[in-house]
Amino acid sequence: MKRYAKYVKPYIHAFILGPLMILVEVVGEVLLPAMMADIINIGAANHDISYIISKGIKMVIIAFLMMGGGIGAAYFAAKAAMHFGRDLRKDLFEKVQKFSFSNIDSFSTGSLVTRLTNDITQMQNVIMMSLRIMLRAPGMMIGAIIMAFRMNASLAVIIMIVAPILAIAIGTIIRIAFPRFEIMQKKLDYLNSNIQEILTNVRVIKSFVRGDYEKERFSDSNEELKNSSLDAFKVVIIQMPIMTLAMNLTVLAVVWFGGNQILKGTMQVGDLTAFTTYITQILMSLMIMAMVLLQSSRAVASSKRIIEVLDTEIDLNDDESGAKESLVKVGKIEFRSVSYRYYKDNHEKVLDDINFTIEAGQTVGIIGSTGSGKTTLVQMIPRLYDVDEGEVLVDGINVKDFSLENLRNGVSMVLQNNVLFSGTIMENLQWGDEKASDEEIRKAASAAQADQFISSFPEGYETELGQGGVNVSGGQKQRLCIARALLKKPKILILDDSTSAVDTATEAKIRECFESELKSTTKLIIAQRISSVMEADLILVMEEGKIVGMGDHEELLSSCGAYQEIYDSQMDRKVGA
User: How far is CA 148 from CA 55, 136, 185, 275, 393, in A?
Assistant: First the structure.
């Protein structure tokens, strides 16, 4: 719990007042049976109506006090639990936001969603239950034991025999249930990942008529979750029958031996009634504590998963450096003997000994076969990944010596997978610059050849986009993402195959705007079409993580076999067309 102290401290008053308020209810629970015994033994036995009324009024007052205590305890328990969950969820989300791409790769998206929602909810539920019950149950049990021994010590011995047996049974159940709850949460992770994947790619599923396959896959993961849940809960189910059997047997024993004592005149009827209530309270307290402990075992499994995220070492941080306040001012880029592996224990390099220099304002094309390392290469510049060997420099400064904020503010990147968010087109474009004027937004959209189609919509820039931009075409989505990137007014602009869904004429217009509007911006263009990079100042040709050719179009045609092959294959297709 030390790990969670920071989430308890600001609301310590609620964590203290909740249990204290419940003590009012506990005192009432302990006093009421004894008062009822007095009514039976004294009031009823002596036909003393005034005594019965007097005691009854006191019992009603106690009942109202108990109600107030119960309401107060519930309020403070809820307040403590909800604030705890909110603050923990906020920190967990912020930690995930700081993850590097490689950190994110080690967790599935579905798993992170489960940890941010279900796992934290499990902890909230246990805190709320514990504050309301955990002090009540032991308090009621201790009070009931004291009252039971005061009334009839010889009869109270029965509960001292039953309680240890029940405690052992409950402990065994919890020990068996705990690992099963861990498995259940992992199955929930898998199901959430499955659901997310299906909903995100529903158009692909429909176009390939794979609905039946995905239904079967979902059914399998849903069945696995059901089976693991049953595995966990069938252990829990055993608890109730055991507790009920123990309670009934104990009450029978009390009534049997207590009845004999009444017949002998050593015990009064009212005392037996109260004693039976106290025995029931003791056993109920044990049952409640068992229930909380079982719920806690599930919360402990959730806690481990939350701490796993909080304790994940972020492998991409702002280290202390004198250049942290530096900004990207020019846009010169240099790679010096850069190598990178996705998995550190893997000998295969995604990038291998990369060396090149790009002068500020140059347009650089990067071309190569799928999987040659083009995307990984450009992701080193804004430090989406960190190099294993060598160094990447921007304006002569190692990228690790910039603050991440300053570095990424100077680099604008249009990723291979274009992402738009729910909201208007205007709101999506303002991601590039939230303070941009309408004129600046229109200028960026025009440069990206997006203004014309945006203006054709009835609501123009206020058109609502569906999640992920589902109500615009692939080419329109790419142009919106380019416009968003341009609004940052970056010193370095990276386009990762970002015009693949745009026709060649529109792409040519976009490149023309880049040349006229972004003369001082360093532009890196990853492309599959050789026409997209032919006019670049410098072209990098990549194969299997290495640069196999470097130069302008004419130089590469005469010196680089890989470039010649790409050129010939694409030009032949054009001629054939």
Answer: 20, 18, 43, 6, 79
DSSP, res 322 = T
Helix 474-486 and helix 438-447: axis angle, to 10°? 130
Place of tokens 């506990």: 26
**CA atoms lying within 13 Å on the CB side of residue 417:** 4
The owner of tokens 């481990």 is: 304
Among positive and negative, which fits the CA dihedral 343, 346, 351, 354? positive
- Please give the helix or strand (H or E) that residue 495 lies within, else none: strand 492-496
Reference 534, options 556, 562, 561; nearest CA is 556
Own/partner contacts of 460-463, CB < 8 Å, gap of 24 or more, are 460/425, 461/424, 461/425, 461/426, 461/429, 462/424, 462/425, 462/426, 463/424, 463/425
How would you classify the pairing of strands 522-526 and 492-496?
parallel
Distance, in Å, from the CA atom of 384 to the CA atom of 34, rounded to the nearest integer, reads 70
Contact by Cβ (8 Å): 407, 383: yes
Q: State the pLDDT at residue 41.
A: 83
* Predicted pLDDT at 322: 47
- Cα–chain center distance at 206: 29
* Cα 104 from Cα 98, distance rounded (Å): 10
pLDDT exceeds 60 at position 273: yes
> Which tens digits make up the pLDDT trace of 43-53?
888 888 888 89
Q: Determine contact, residues 159/279, Cβ cutoff 8 Å.
A: yes
CB 77 within 8 A of CB 306: no
First-to-final CA distance of the chain: 69
Query: Under a CB-based contact definition with an 8 Å cutoff, are residues 179 and 304 in contact?
Result: no
pTM: 0.69
Give the residues across from 357 on adjacent strands. Answer: 334
Shortest CA distance to 411 belongs to which of 314, 335, 333? 333
CA distance 123 to 305: 11
Beta-sheet pairing, 423-424 with 464-465: antiparallel
Amino acid residing at 83: H
Residue 209 CA to residue 438 CA, distance in Å, equals 43
Instruction: Report the mean per-residue pLDDT for the chain.
Output: 85
Rounded-to-integer distance, Cα 423 and Cα 464, Å: 5
CA distance 389 to 381: 14
Mean pLDDT of all residues in 420-429: 88
Q: What angle do CA 477, 483, 488 make, to 5 degrees?
A: 135
In this prediction, residue 320 carries a pLDDT of: 52
Share of the chain above pLDDT 90, in %: 24
pLDDT digits (tens, 9 = 90+) for 444-467: 999 999 999 999 999 999 998 876
